[in-house]
Amino acid sequence: MHPFDFVRAHEIAGAIRSGSRDAAKFIAGGTNLVDLMKCDVERPAHIVDVNDLPLTKIEQTSGGIRIGALARMSDVAEHPIVLENFPVISQALLASASPQIRNMASIAGNLMQRTRCAYFRELTWTPCNKRNPGSGCSAIGGENRLHAILGTSDSCIATYPSDLAVAVVALDGVMTLRGPNGERYVNAANFHLLPGNTPHIEHDLKHGELITSLFIPDAAHARKSAYLKVRDRAAYEFALTSAAVGLDIDGGTIRSARVALGGVGTKPWRSRDAEAALLGKPANEQTFRAAAEEAVKGAKAQEQNGFKIELAKRTLVRALTDLAGGVA
Amino acid sequence: MPNVGRPLDRVDGRPKTTGGARYAAEHNLENTAYGVLVMSTIPAGTIKSIDASAALKSPGVIAVLSHQNTPTLNDAQGKNGLREAALVPFQNASVRYAGQRIAVVVADTLEHATRGAELVKVTYDEAPARIDIQKFRDEANDRAKSKFSKGDADAALASAPVKVDQVYRTPYEHHNPMEAHSIVAAWKGDDLTLYESSQNIFGVQSSMATLFSIPKEKVHVVSQFVGGAFGSKGGVWPHVVIAAVAAREVKRPVKLVVTRKQLYFGNGHRPETEQRVALGANADGKLVALIHEGFGQSNDVCDYAERFVRPTRAIYASDNIRGVNPIVSLNLPSPTYMRAPGESPGMFAIESAMDELAFALKIDPVQLRLINHADTDPVNGKPWSSKSLKQCYEQAADRFGWSRRNPEPRSMKSGRNLIGLGMASATYPAHRSPASARAVMKSDGTAVISSGSHEMGMGTATVMAQLAAETLGVPVERVKFEYGDTTLPPAPISAGSMTAASVGSAVYGAALELKKKIAALDGVDPASLDGDSYHSILSKHYLDQIDARFDAKPEQEESHSTQAFGAHFVEVSIDQDLPVVRVNRMVSAFAGGRILNEKTARSQYLGGIIQGIGMALMEETHLDKRLGTYTNVNFAEYLVPVNPDIRDIDIIIVEEEDKFVNPIGVKGIGEIGIVGVAPAIANAVYHATGKRVRDLPITIEKLL
Amino acid sequence: MSLPPCYQPPDDDEPQDPSRRSFMIGSAAATAGLLVSPLLGEAAVKEAAAKTAADPNAIPVSLNVNGRVHHLKLDPRTTLLDALREHLDLTGTKKGCDQGACGACTVLVDGRRINSCLTLAAMNAGRKIVTIEGLTSEGKLHPVQAAFIRNDGFQCGYCTSGQVCSAFALIKEGHAHSDDEIREWMSGNVCRCGCYIGIVQAVKEARDASI
Question: Which of A31, A34, A101, A121 is most worth mutating to test chain C (most C CB atoms within 10 A of its CB)?
């Protein structure tokens, strides 16, 4: 692990000042950053501990819920407003990692979680465009069972790992970012970036900027929402495929729908095409299957992960079916 | 028999549940330095240069050791007892596999040593590497000399009315004990003390004595608590040598903990195998031919071969049996024995094939196994020392409700889930090795029994105290068993399910000798001694204590074949659309001779079964065939079962008396639990889905 | 057993010498060394030892562990897990994977169970840390510990500290209502020996004992 100096920030402005220094990183839960520092992938020279900042509140605001960036995954997962109005958020969180990690990891940190691609994090001597831009992608043509099928490029096929982010983009979450030049808002769906030929640039967060909160708007499709995660073992594993879905059904017809997939994309994969295929249609198996076809449109399989195309469709159909009350 | 068999709580329960148990790396000696390994990043070639200058300038770094500056060790022309006997660390520039330990950075703190290791720059001359076993399958050679043959199996197969002839594959797997390999090495003059997480302390002692050209007595190995091993801590691996070298060079104790990632490359694995099983049967189900052949990975620096045909010699009766399991030498890390080596992958193939045969013949799988029950050893014809496999089938099938199984695949459902029932047999040889024990009776009536064995969680410390207490006729609370130290009487490697039989025979013998000695003082019959008489006799003769030693050697195995048996019955549930396999319930019955502690025995069986569930459904170390490196080298992507993967598992311990196997009548139970689990699950998956998966693990894409 | 040299007792104001140069040996020196005459003289060893206590990058960190405050000087890179094991000699907390993927290092911080391998020691200054050693009071086993022994919820024992801490926490969290709930909420603690059935039984017994 590279050496660094450590400061604990006590107020937001100071944190941003400290975090604006070259090679500075904020630390909250540490579950991803410390891990990647041990892998010698993250090499900050300055660590700014933001855990004392007053950013833990979870509150109902007009039109939605505001979740402080430092609220822990476990607190959000079991918060009554989340359970009542945003069940997909709670379910995605409870399907994540382990109880211990959920007690540590912050909401903002979870949205910033980096890929599990083995060539990126473990095999640091191998080429990786994300870790070492321009060096090549070892996963293409390598061990890629767990890699992405959507949003990939010739430079990178690394899967985006967070379950929460999939639920957040499905429900039109908005992040508040604060930096040296003030505050701005970013739609969660636009926060994570496709790899293209710059896979090392993963999100729309400028150096020194701090995520301060996450807002999720109230909606009928948020109140009726669910997360389904498919994996090899029963718990404590990243998704092979997952689906975050929200439906507002009136008299058997879908009034609004939200669909996002996890485990398959290079970013949390919101599918507006799938939503369009659901909108105004009867909530039945035929509709759900059509939506699933839309959701994986353009998917590109590697040698070992072709199964994810079919599995993602089935995951989505099952999630929609169960959410609709088993009508299909 | 007041003590043996009782489900006593473990004697080491308190230290293990309160944090008091000190494992190898937890011996914090004064002035300890930390060693961190550097691994090769190419699979074959030579090291051109190792640039340690940046590492040496990094704060706290004391030394960087590699082949460039390590003194010559005595490799004894390969007779050095190392797992990689042909690759003594740091002796030359050759690279035989990716992940090879090629340097160590020693620093004053773990953080400094870790950083130093990142700064070591290595360049190589790369050579062509042999990575993909399929590309070199034609070069397989029978290093293990495993070939055996009875009758003419090929001719019998050709003329058999019913045949199953299939290829089965098992992947690279890693033991992944919770405690990675760890050591603290300290020299005092020419005396070396090693706190090493080992299931073979005398092996470590002997190897180090050879390599450093010092008498064995100067090497003191301590291994009191071992945080899991499963075979991976039986070999003497490079880190042991490296820690000892480093401690000698920096003149300080050196602590070296292999990281979880590093563990995948230099501390053993279960090698990939490809196995052909060909069964020929008559219409009545009788096997007329049994052929088992194929190959498994090994390399040129170790002598290991995965002997997957070993169970083939023991499991079914047939006039014509042929087996051979050669190795394919590759530029990959050294394989080693992993819980039930041979039997575990081998029985996956045989028991899957038997299930296929049962369907081909339309004979119930249990019935097919009964038809082919081996009443005597199938190959050498010797009688069994004992065998209760039929009782295992019967009792487990009954409790499981096997009779309610509809034999038709895809016939049983529960909501969206397909339900499948499957079974398989289990077997593992009853080994034994020489072992010695000392028994000491103190004048206060308490006894200390000692033998340099190991406790990796098998319950050795507990059952040996029970066995000694019973033999001496004293309450178990008055007996202490000492182990895990080379200053104690020698015990064999704790592997091959032979600790109870080997060490138990020595403990039993030492206790009897002690009784004889004490009885002789008073001229009484040893059988008349009890808990109170020891105190009075020793007091009468003004003795503080009296001791006896016994060297136990295997003797009676020649006349009989000795083998433990069992049977697994499994119910799986598989979602029709999202076909992840879940094991709903299992009933497994085992006959392993005399059981020394019903509680710890059950735990060992369960542990084997749960590793078997992992083997069946999720365990696989993925290999990048271009780079020659494993990729899922952590606990997040190398999957082992977690708590919610495990539901209802019922163990039946079938009573069995064995008068021949060894003086205490035990067969060993540590490994048989895993044997047969994977095929039982694969067979249940076939019953549920109609899909026969012949390559492990049975992951979702194989059932989509 | 003596405490490691980097341990600083409370109120110890030993002056540090940041100018002390790093001690190192080069490969040339090492090659010259023979097995029977190790490379370093006594002075060098002493110098190396002294340097440990004088790490110029070390920062003061006060950790409250099991009710006792320890004033340490730590490399900022030191994780809470390594601080416990290597600096405080509290080796009950185990290093299994060092990557947050096994749960062997589970401890309680401010009453919540966490993986001590993924948090820096410095981040935990001023927080209340409870380790496995802190669950036993005056030599008396906690009901969770007793239940693990009774139900043989371990074999090798290496994951046990983490399992016990996790079980202790999950009962307090109210996540022990059913077998399935216990299994799910104990899923962050891998047991390679495969003692899950005994562990679930132990959690149930401990839950019932503490109601």
Answer: A34
